[in-house]
Amino acid sequence: MNLTPADKATLLKLARDSITHGMEHGVPLPVSLEEHSDILQQPGASFITLHLNQELRGCIGSLAPHRPLIKDVAQNAFSAAFRDPRFTPVRRDELDTLHIHIEVLSPTQLLQFGSETELQRMIRPGIDGLVLRDGVYSGTFLPSVWQSLPDVQTFLQQLKRKAGLPANYWSDSLEVERYTTESFEEPVQE
After folding, report:
1. What is the predicted pLDDT for the residue at 50?
2. 107-118 burial: b if 16+ Cβ within 10 Å, else e
3. Are 98 and 80 in contact (CB under 8 A)?
4. Backbone angles phi, psi at 80, to 5 degrees
């Protein structure tokens, strides 16, 4: 999406403001589009990841653009803080030490492959985020997951597990899409 440093700073501030607003009002921060740059008003998909003391505290996002990016970030920041079913809602005493990481997604690209080996050769470690689907099963890993799962085979096996499938699952109906992200985060506080 080619966000400027000012756009990134705006999104980071907006994410934090939406979490604070959510703490006080129980809803995401309302956003006025006309107050923001044209690129932030365009449809966009984002994932917001929250960390507390370097531990995951919440992560929610959109895989496809369906609302202006600025509104997507506000909604997903609120949802990551208060609606991630894996965690209890963020508490007021956690706000100051909560660390926000934003990933803005590119459009997805459907990969065409005939075997798992062929699929593995197409995946670009450290670059690609993947969406895996087969029937009612689906899951995604952001490109940032490569930091903890740097091997293509392991990355794919864990993504299958996340989707609710066995690690060695294979089917001709399996679909995989890839995407990249523009990733940025708040400075780490000492």
Report:
1. 97
2. ebeebeeeeeee
3. no
4. -65, -35
